[in-house]
Amino acid sequence: MESSRQGHLVGADVGSTTVKALVVRADTGVVVWRDYRRHETRQPETLLDCFRRMEAEAGVRPHDSRVFMTGSGSRSLAPLVGARFVQEVTAVALAVERWYPRVRSVIELGGQDAKIVVFKPLGDGRTQKIPSMNDRCAGGTGAVIDKIAAKLAIPPAELGRHGYAGLHIHPVAGKCGVFAETDINSLQKQGVPPDELMASLFDALVLQNLTVLARGHTLLPDVLLVGGPNTFIRGMREAWQHALPRVWRERGVAIPDGARPEDLVFVPPDGEYFAASGAVEYGRREAEAEDARYLGLACLKDYVAGGRRHARARAA
């Protein structure tokens, strides 16, 4: 067991559109390798490539590494490499408790899901975690942003620079991606410029998630924004920073003296890796988790080569 504590902890977040992975030295907690990439519906192939690079570039080995995986694609893929599956909300909550104990609310937007975790103080130093997750409809998620951006011929690099503050906001339905697309089409035909269209979409997604996912709970400050859309798209961050202080004013939420409300809604460094780092934190707390020991790539290679096809055939 001593070698495993001095080896590596691997955290992987296999999501609906991206794979995020990082390698941490178990003895120091220092991140020595990380990667973020879109998998284009090729989750196993992308994960396999990540592990190959971890072995070559970070020295990850079966004898001294333990792996913890989260995300929608991890439940089926984790056993192939010996990893322990960590539920997404658990991973996010653990990362908050470790690095941002003052945070009272977390909003994560993924490719095809969204989640909110409220940390409700219990008055004795403990908090109650109240999670809410949308994983049955892509409305209010990054998939809607990608689809609208593609329709407007906005490349990914440019999308990240699209803003919200100071732009005219038009009514757009955020409940469903189809409804949002219909509204965007109508506005485009009326001559509304792309920057206002995207800002209006950001506004609609924020209002949709506050209405549905918050489930009546007030998202108290500090509020952490994580996930790819929140991390990479300036307009999404600005939309949250506009909407949440307005909710606080309406509901009489006090903020610290001298604080700017928008500064209490922020993206942490490397917010795209937040769930993966939470999976690592789970592993750090489960120091004797023998069932999470890295098995190498043989089973994952076999799955990619033909096992997935066979599994689909059996399911059919």
Task: Give an account of the 3D structure.
This protein is of the alpha/beta class and 316 residues long. 44% of the residues lie in helices and 18% in strands. The strands form two sheets. A five-stranded mixed β-sheet has the order 3-2-1-4-5, with helices on both faces. Strands 8-7-6-9-10 form a five-stranded mixed β-sheet, sandwiched between helices. The longest helix is centred in the middle third of the chain and has 19 residues, at 194-212. The protein is globular.
List the topology elements:
Blueprint: H1 2-6, E1 8-14, E2 18-25, E3 31-38, H2 43-58, E4 65-70, H3 74-81, E5 84-85, H4 88-99, E6 105-109, E7 114-121, E8 127-134, H5 142-151, H6 156-159, H7 177-189, H8 194-212, E9 223-226, H9 228-232, H10 234-251, E10 265-266, H11 274-285, H12 298-315
Parallel strand pairs: 1-4, 4-5, 6-9, 9-10
Antiparallel strand pairs: 1-2, 2-3, 6-7, 7-8
Helix pairs in contact: 4-11, 5-7, 7-8, 8-10
